[in-house]
Amino acid sequence: MDNPENVLIIGSGIAGMEASLMLSKAGKKVYLVENLPIIGGKIIKNEESFPNMECSTCLVAPIQQEILQDANIEVLTLSTVEKIAGKPGDFKITVRKKARYVSLEACLGCGACYPVCPVVLKNEWEENLMDKKAIYVPCSGSLPNVPAIDASECLHLNGKDKSCNKCVEACMFGAIDFSQKDEELKLDVTGIIVATGFELINGQALENLGYGKYPGVYTAFEFERLFASNGPTEGKLFLRDSENTPDSVAIVHCVGRDEVGYCSNVCCMSSSKHARFIKHNLHDAKIYNIYSDICLPDKSYQKFFDETKSHDSEFIFQSDRKKMKITKKDGKLEVSYFNGKETKESILVDMVILANALRPSDTIEELTKALEIKRDSFGFIETEPSKLGSVETSRPGIFVAGCAEGPKDIQGSVIQSEAAVAGILSLLDQ
Ligand SMILES: Cc1cc2nc3c(=O)[nH]c(=O)nc-3n(C[C@H](O)[C@H](O)[C@H](O)COP(=O)(O)OP(=O)(O)OC[C@H]3O[C@@H](n4cnc5c(N)ncnc54)[C@H](O)[C@@H]3O)c2cc1C
Ligand code: SF4
Ligand code: SF4
Predict the structure, then answer these.
(1) CB of 42 closer than 6 A to ligand 1?
(2) Residue of the CA atom closest to atom 38 of ligand 1
(3) What Rg, from alpha-carbon coordinates, does the chain have?
């Protein structure tokens, strides 16, 4: 193998980025593989992060920049791991890297190519709350700030209109490059950290609560994007189907908890964060947090929660999550639930935010098959059960960090990165 000190990190959320920087500082060469065109993971969806309500961009952008400028870290965006062979200390990895069709070196991120593109698509990264073009960056402030072309939608690349060159003509820097091809890369690495994070559930539990039926019902990530100054409404809390702001909001905790079978660890805090944000921006809005359990797993969280409870939001206990119903009444959303005395009650609101459960990332099944590592009964990556608090997976030499192992906050994700890096360094020592 060419370099016995190479490490592969899969996923560039906070867990993968922190692990990459730590390993680079220890003098190791890192391949950071990310399947999206940008790095940063889910926290770049957030305007502010609990518990200190710091600006998330201010927290993450310097880390992203450091990663992109670090000579020891090779960032492979639009990439996925396809195959693995070998053993700890000598893994042979096959990575599939999709063409971006825009040169990372030549592009200055001026944005002149987007408006001219005739193909309009929903922007999934923005939770479908706004459109994007076939040449796009997922959100403003994306890093690297270089667009990618969706080859299946681009008229030139999919052959529907080979004469379309509008983005090429608009680019003053000659950065569009249709000659790029998908590549297969072969990497030799000593150890691997899997940091592929999480998604939010979007199934039956949401439909039962009117999601997709009533425009006033939002998921937690949709709300994060509404609340974001670089999001679809530039941080203004307009309702989906109007230019009105809500006078009343219900935030429903633990959505889908019964279906997934675990507490998602961060939703009580993210729901408190949402209540604070609404109150801060719409002083007269009435806010209800509807909960059945409260989970505050860090010593600083109680204070944050108590402040939200006393200043920003009324907390309502519901005894049975499965009995909650959301319907339409008098132009508002009627949220009905059973209180602690098993009596049915209801409130009328303009907006509902569903704190939906966290689940393993969409790619986890394929990836764990390729890496030949086990998943636990919830679908997250299983850690070595015989070692308490371990970040070792079922295959020696492969570690896990962050929400790929289970739902947790930023701090918990970074702590696991540190543990996984320690595991890798001790492997390299051997
Ligand atoms: C609504 C909401 C609000 C939150 N607010 C806060 C907050 O204010 N404070 C706080 O501490 N925590 C908050 N959290 C939790 C926080 O988002 C997580 O702790 C953090 O994002 C976990 O980071 P991660 O790196 O493990 O995963 P992620 O952020 O999910 O990153 C994983 C990365 O891996 C990539 N990836 C996935 N599969 C593959 C693959 N096969 N190959 C290559 N790349 C892949 C993904 O594209 C992504 O970039 C919130 C969570 C939610 C749901
Ligand atoms: S591809 Fe060209 S036009 Fe588009 S952002 Fe980059 S430099 Fe600007
Ligand atoms: S070639 Fe045309 S369709 Fe394709 S990205 Fe450029 S402007 Fe859009």
Answers:
(1) yes
(2) 196
(3) 23
Residue nearest to atom 7 of ligand 3 (CA): 117
Nearest 5°: the CA angle 95, 96, 98 is 140
- Please state whether the peptide bond connecting residue 115 to the residue before it is cis, i.e. omega within 30 degrees of 0: no
**Average pLDDT of the chain?**
95
The CA distance from 270 to 358, in Å, is 12
C-alpha–C-alpha distance, residues 141 and 150, integer Å: 19
Tokens of 278: 């609404």
Give one DSSP letter per residue of 346-367, joined into a string: EEEESEEEEEEPEEE-TTHHHH
Domain covering 201-357: architecture: 3-Layer(bba) Sandwich (3.50)
Ligand closest to 198 (CA) is 1
Pocket of ligand 1 contains residue 95 by CB under 6 Å: no
Which of 154, 160, 165 is the pocket-test mutation for ligand 3 (most atoms within 8 Å of CB)? 154
Average pLDDT over residues 242-253: 94
For the structural domain made of 6-98+182-197+361-429, what CATH number should be given?
3.50.50.60
* First CA to last CA distance, the chain: 16
Summarize the confidence of residues 243-271 as an average pLDDT: 96
> For ligand 2, atom 4, which residue shows the shortest CA distance?
113
Mean pLDDT, range 345-362, rounded to an integer: 97
User: Rounded CA gap, 158 and 271, in Å?
Assistant: 43
Please, where in the chain does CATH 3.50.50.60 lie? 6-98+182-197+361-429, 201-357
Q: Is the pLDDT at 1 greater than 70, yes or no?
A: no
Cα–Cα distance measured from residue 355 to residue 219, given in angstroms and rounded to the nearest whole number: 6
220 vs 271: CA distance, rounded Å: 8
Tell me the CA distances in angstroms from 13 to 30, 85, 95, one per residue in order: 15, 25, 19
Which numbered ligand comes closest to the C-alpha of 119?
A: 3
Tell me if 410 CB under 6 Å of ligand 1.
yes
What is the rounded distance in angstroms from the CA atom of residue 269 to the CA atom of residue 349? 22
Per-residue DSSP letter, 394: S
Other beta carbons within 10 Å of 5: 17
